[in-house]
Structures are given as C-alpha cells and as structure tokens.
Amino acid sequence: MRTKIDANSLDLKDRVVAINRVTKVVKGGRTFRFAALVIVGDENGHVGAGLGKANEIPEAIRKGKEDAKKNMMFLETNENASLYHELLGHFGAAKVMMRPAPEGTGVIAGGAMRAVLELAGIRNIVTKSIGSNNKHNVVKATLEGLARMKTPSEVARLRGKSVEEVLGNNG
User: Fold this and answer.
1) Which among 98, 150, 147, 86 has a CA at the least distance from the CA of 126?
2) Which end of the chain, N or C, is surrounded by fewer C-beta atoms within 10 Å?
3) Are 48 and 68 within 8 A, CB to CB?
C-alpha cells in the first residue's frame, strides 16, 4: 500500500463480499455475532478492503467500511483500463493470477476477486484463483498482487532509463 489516501475526499462505492455468522455457546444459550468483509473503491484506481465485526449485520458492514477506508491503495491502469503486466498474489493458501487483457474483454474473475477489480476501476482483465477459495484470503491475495504492480515510469526510474527504452518504442 503505497501512499496514505484521504478517503473522505473520494466518491466511494462499497460492496459486501461476505457476511459470516459466528456463534458462541454460553451458559444461557447461544450468542450470535457477525463479521462482514467489505470492499470500497471509487472505480478510478482507489480500492481498499476491511473487516467489521458486531452484534448486528448493519453495524458490522459500517465497521467494515471504516476499516476499508483506512486500508486504501491507489492503482494506476493502462490505456485499456487494464494492468501493465501479469501479476501473482499470495495470501495464506490463496493464490491469484491476473493478466492484462485487450479492450472489450471485460472482467473475467470470480466473486471476491471481481468485487476488488471492479471497484478499483479495472475493466479488462483475465484472472484465475488457485488454491484456497476462502473469500477473505482471495481478497487479500488480490490486493497484495495489485500492490506489486509497477508502472513503466517506475521501471524506467529504477533502471535509470527512459520510458521509451523500457517499452522498446525507440525505433
């Protein structure tokens, strides 16, 4: 997660990916609590994920939104609203593979990964989730992979070359 983002200045949309009911057995019976996994993004490069826990579902979702706003990151996309290069993300037993796609492909991704990519503003991408399909881990693996993406200008700066030399557009 590269820079601190002021989430209050953005027009954020949110999507609830998972709601888990957790049961605790006590002397008087069972108590239920809820955990909500929420993704927030402005569909223009800013995206974050958060987990909220509470006794009622709406309160858990609200807490999840607040947590997601604290964990936002910015992604730069190419002219096709896609990635610059292929990415792999790992978290726990979840592995995700993300490949850039040409204009008109759309978002080819499963549920939890699709929510992250759509709210990040990525419109053309091909993905594959390998290993665990636990929604929490898939979301974290997706964000971890996206955080590793390097733009051509970053690569050029690291190599001490011009962007044209890195992209091979010099002739």
Assistant:
1) 98
2) C
3) yes
Judge contact between 47 and 71, C-beta under 8 A: no
Distances (CA, A) of 155 to 71, 141, 150, 152, 164: 25, 23, 7, 5, 11
* 55-105 confidence digits (pLDDT tens): 999 999 999 999 999 999 999 988 888 999 999 999 999 999 999 999 999
Q: Which residue type does 6 have? A: D
Cα–Cα distance list, 10 to 25, 42, 45, 100 (Å): 42, 7, 11, 26
pLDDT of residue 167: 78
pLDDT at 145: 94
- Separation of alpha carbons 19 and 133, rounded Å: 15
CA distance 68 to 167: 35
Averaged confidence pLDDT in the chain: 90
